[in-house]
Specification:
With about 700 residues, this protein is of the alpha+beta class. Helix content is about 50%, strand content about 10%. Strands 13-15-14-17-16-11-12-19 form an 8-stranded antiparallel β-sheet. Strands 4-3-18 form a 3-stranded antiparallel β-sheet. Strands 1-2 form a two-stranded antiparallel ribbon. α9 packs antiparallel against α17. It is flat, with a radius of gyration of 48 Å.
Length: about 700
């Protein structure tokens, strides 16, 4: 049977009301065209991010209907009574779990956790399972597939785990400690087995490893000096070919003079480039005396580890035939070493690797991994228990801010509202966090609302918000003005306006807007003309001062300034202009008086002609004012036109109001006094009206009556 839904209307949209656990369980039957939102971000909103991450199964940073429906279905399957979702809370009685397999397993895990914590009773809370690392630390095996040195008891096994982490890297377990997993352990022991197989191919064959386990060290010692020894014998052969070459093949006096100017050490490159010993025909290589000091240590290592053990006799010199014999004996070993598998175990002594493979260490490590993996279902249930407690606490709240905007329209604080901005004697509650003001404004402007973007700073922290100004005048809102922003946690931030999107806030504001603009234009023109006149006057005064100062330099006597002559033509032109203006004013006033009882209609027509277009535009924009584009620009996917009408706007932006029961002293000692000025202005206005009436002949008509 189709589930029966209850709807409420807000923002010009019919929205579903989640009233029971049955509504949550049957949410998949509600047409998604009736959902208010179809997606929301997991960050930048006032909601527990951990809960959102549990719902966001694909970890893309967004919540969409399939993920939300899956969370509802998963939760309802594990609760005996889904109505608990409407009650909320972060504690759960174990008898509230369902009788199904999933509920029974969660109840068993909850009892195990309570036992670990030493808590009696049959009620578990989110705080008991939220700190999973504390619970897992109390367990030798926690089912995360990671074993640490603390997991092992035998010293050999501890050493093996440490070697695995050193060579193949470590992984952090759920308890926060570094360890190794099965993949790393298998790779380590597989490489160790490959080395053993490679080593077993020779099995101590003296034809391949003439020095046994010391053969690699002998080869290493030979490799260190091989190129230099070959260079020495080649030079000696060349000296034997031509006796004249010997002097040229040995260092010259000039080369030694170059060394004289340097600060030398035995490791100097200039010394190391010299031959191993003095070059002479058929001369054996000295191994003790008369060798290049830069190579003395390497030759000593070669003598003790390779030459003497392989040739079987103490050596002070090495003839070339003995050198060739030595290289021939090492050739099979060098080929064997070249075939060594490429592994990450070069830093581990081969004997230690063989011991790990032979004393059962490998089996011990893998048995620890097996034991830990057997606990994995329990760890999964522990995570499911935390998930259930979070969903019980938060899921209904999320539905009232996703499927419907119940919390917003009932003024309970929606999850997208970042806080309250206090600015220009008002508070703005419709505030949203944004990442990029310029990018956000490109779409948010379609909301037809007056928006102010503010950078908010609190010590080293900085955030950007956008606030919708939905009531009051906006005459004194401008970029750079400061205010205070309170986030949902009650923390205060310094707020500065950085960008404004202008739109009408009310019909009254739009009605007076043309007159305010006209007054501002007059003030700007007057200020501009006054500035120009002041500049011209200053220029004339400067010229006059210069003339006065330099007057005695022209003819030796100071002369008074001659008053300027009056231009009769100019005076006549001014008179004609004033007469024309008065004639026009008289004609207009006469026509206006002739209207009789239609005068109020004419006044109304004048007002409508001035304010009408502005009011009409404001009325159209206020009808289109919507929440959708403002949230869409922040990453939401709003499914309908969520209107912000005048009444709702008045509640979102509250103007300063004196409490009704407060006392008030209206006497302002600093108030400006305009009584005389206003009286003079009224007298002048009456005189002007009387003069216009006299010019129009109206006074004669009145007197005749």
């Amino acid at each position: 049977m189709e589930h029966a839904w209850q709807f409420f209307r807000a923002g010009g949209v019919d929205q579903v009301s989640i009233r029971s656990g049955a509504d949550v369980c049957h949410l998949d039957q509600l047409d998604q065209k009736l959902w208010v939102a179809l997606a929301c971000p997991t960050r930048g909103i006032e909601f527990d991010p951990r809960t959102l991450d549990l719902i966001d199964t694909d970890a893309d940073g967004r919540i969409r209907p399939p993920e939300l429906l899956a969370a509802c279905r998963w939760t309802c399957e594990r609760l005996r009574d889904p109505d608990r979702l409407l009650q909320g809370g972060d504690t759960l009685a174990l008898d509230a779990l369902s009788n199904g397999e999933a509920g029974i397993q969660l109840a068993e895990e909850a009892r195990h956790i309570l036992q670990l914590l030493g808590k009696p009773g049959d009620t578990i809370g989110l705080a008991d399972v939220a700190d999973r690392s504390r619970l897992l630390a109390a367990m030798r095996f926690n089912g995360d597939g990671v074993i640490t040195e603390d997991t092992a008891e035998a010293p050999a096994v501890r050493a093996a785990i440490r070697r695995i982490m050193e060579t193949h890297g470590s992984v952090e377990g759920l308890d926060g400690k570094p360890g190794t997993d099965r993949a790393r352990a298998d790779a380590f022991f597989a490489e160790a087995a490959a080395i053993r197989q490679w080593r077993d191919k020779v099995a101590g064959d003296r034809s391949v490893v003439p020095l046994g386990d010391d053969t690699p060290a002998a080869i290493q010692a030979v490799n260190a000096v091989q190129a230099k020894i070959e260079d020495y014998y080649a030079r000696c052969r060349l000296a034997g070919y031509d006796r004249r070459a010997a002097s040229a093949l040995n260092p010259s006096q000039e080369e030694y003079r170059k060394l004289y100017d340097e600060a030398l050490t035995l490791g100097s490159d200039h010394i190391a480039r010299l031959p191993l010993a003095a070059i002479a025909a058929d001369r054996p290589l000295p191994l003790r005396d008369g060798v290049n000091p830069a190579w003395a240590q390497a030759l000593e290592t070669f003598r003790t580890r390779a030459a003497e053990p392989l040739l079987g006799t103490p050596l002070d010199t090495l003839p070339e035939p003995a050198w060739r014999q030595l290289m021939a004996r090492l050739e099979p070993a060098r080929n064997w070493l070249a075939a060594k598998p490429q592994t990450r175990l070069d830093a581990v002594v081969v004997a230690d690797l063989m011991a790990m493979l032979e004393d059962g260490t490998e089996a011990a490590v893998k048995s620890l991994l097996d034991a830990d993996e057997k606990i994995e279902p329990r760890t999964t249930r522990m995570g499911d228990l935390e998930k259930l407690l979070r969903f019980q606490r938060d899921l209904a709240h999320l539905l009232d801010n996703f499927v419907s905007f119940k919390d917003f329209y009932r003024r309970k604080g929606a999850i997208f509202q970042a806080g309250t901005l206090y600015l220009d004697a008002r508070s703005c509650e419709l505030t949203v966090r944004v990442e990029d003001a310029a990018r956000h404004a490109a779409l948010a402007g379609l909301a037809k609302a007056y928006l102010v973007y503010c950078d908010c700073r609190r010590q080293a922290e900085k955030i950007t918000i956008v606030a919708a100004v939905t009531a009051g005048d906006v005459d004194f809102l401008f970029v750079g003005r400061n205010g205070v922003f309170y986030d949902r946690q009650g923390r205060d931030w310094d707020a500065t306006i950085v960008k404004i999107i202008e739109n009408p806030t009310s019909i009254a504001q739009a009605f007076f807007s043309p007159y305010k603009k006209f007054v501002r234009m007059i003030e700007e023109q007057v200020a501009r003309r006054a500035a120009a006149s002041d500049e011209a006057a200053q220029g004339k005064l400067g010229s006059l001062a210069a003339n006065l100062v330099t007057a005695d330099r022209k003819d030796g006597t100071a002369r008074p300034a001659t008053p300027g002559k009056v231009d009769v033509g100019t005076v006549a032109a001014l008179g004609v202009a004033l007469g024309s203006i008065s004639t026009v004013l008289v004609a207009v006033f006469t026509k206006f008086v002739d209207l009789g009882w239609w005068i109020p209609v004419a006044l109304l027509g004048i007002v409508l002609s001035i304010s009408g277009p502005s009011v009409l535009i404001a009325w159209l924009k206020l009808r289109q004012r919507s929440l959708g584009p403002l949230l869409d620009a922040s990453g939401w996917a709003i499914n309908g036109r969520m209107k912000i009408n005048v009444k709702l706007g008045g509640s979102l932006s509250r103007m300063a109001r004196i409490p009704p029961d407060a006392g008030r002293n209206l006497r302002d000692p600093f108030a400006e006094r305009h009584g005389k000025a206003w009286g003079l202005a009224i007298v002048l206005a009456l005189v002007a009206l009387a003069w216009l009436a006299w010019r129009a002949g109206l006074l004669d008509t009145v007197l005749a009556i």
